[in-house]
Amino acid sequence: MASATEERICLFLCFFLFLHLSTSTKNNPIPSPWPEQFHSVLFINRSGNLQKTDLWYDWPKGRNFNIIQYQLGVLKYDLEWNNGTSFLYTLDPFNHTCKRLHFDVGILRPNWLDGANYLGQQYVDNFLCNVWEKVDFIWYYEDVVTKRPVKWIFYSGMIAHVMTFEVGAVLDDEHWQAPVYCFSEAEPEPKIHNRRSSSLLDLEAAVDGGFRGTLMSEMS
Ligand SMILES: *[C@@H]1O[C@H](CO)[C@@H](O)[C@H](O)[C@H]1NC(C)=O
Ligand SMILES: *[C@@H]1O[C@H](CO)[C@@H](O)[C@H](O)[C@H]1NC(C)=O
Ligand SMILES: *[C@@H]1O[C@H](CO)[C@@H](O)[C@H](O)[C@H]1NC(C)=O
């Protein structure tokens, strides 16, 4: 019979073998690139504040839209252009507000997950998923079978559950027009610079989709 010490040593060796296997990158799956155009409905939990977001990703036209419905609250539009300009606005029946921001970076590229660290498989939201992490910033879960994203988690704790994922869906051009009151004032766009900084973290609160203000600055 093996002594407790021997068992412990064996467990130790198994553990390191496991670590070695799980960190060797040879046959690790890589995340599917995002389709060039898609529409996705996301349910997002931000520390208990719930929101439903319509995400319209449109790489060929260099634009990305988060249309955010806060639970029993306002509907907010976060329209992002690849030239770095973002418009954050509300429409009727809500007060007319608009914030124009300028970022050093464009929208996410379809291959923005390249270079993510593979962490193995896990059941999330009842789907068996491959899991990756990128720059301690996002944890990304993709269905093993269909390769569709299931969920992602930002370092801030914000969790997005992917409810629909319509590859090839495009929102008509007419909907990508920020309202006139976004253009009424002559004040320059506030510039948002690269790299995480306290102002960027503040900004994350403003950019509720969570993409440009935080993710983009890391991925560019
Ligand atoms: C949202 O996340 C919080 C933790 O931040 C959790 O306590 C709560 O149950 C979640 N709500 C839903 C509806 O998932
Ligand atoms: C970026 O493109 C949008 C949409 O065409 C435009 O409204 C905005 O003024 C542009 N921003 C800059 C800095 O050129
Ligand atoms: C909308 O504007 C009115 C009038 O300025 C103000 O009283 C009200 O608080 C505003 N509502 C919101 C949600 O900001």
Instruction: List unreliable stretches of 5+ residues.
Output: 194-209
The first-level CATH class is given as Mainly Beta
Instruction: Give the beta-strand count.
Output: 12
In the residues, how many domains can be counted? 1
Question: Which sequence of SSEs, written as H and E, runs from N to C?
Answer: HEEEEEEEEEEEEHH
Rg, Å, rounded: 21 Å
* Sheet/helix structural class: alpha+beta
Fraction of residues in β-strands: 35-45%
Biggest beta-sheet profile: 12 strands, mixed
Structure explained in plain terms:
The chain has 220 residues and is of the alpha+beta class. It has one domain: outer membrane lipoprotein receptor (LolB), chain A (Clam), CATH 2.50.20.10. Helices cover 17% and strands 40% of the residues. A 12-stranded mixed beta sheet has the order 7-8-9-10-11-1-2-3-4-5-6-12, with helices on one face. Helix 2 packs across helix 3. The longest helix is centred in the first third of the chain and has 20 residues. It is elongated. About 7% of the residues have low confidence. Bound molecules: 2-acetamido-2-deoxy-beta-D-glucopyranose (3 copies). The site of one 2-acetamido-2-deoxy-beta-D-glucopyranose (NAG) has 3 residues, from loops. One 2-acetamido-2-deoxy-beta-D-glucopyranose binds next to loops. This is Transferring glycosyl group transferase.
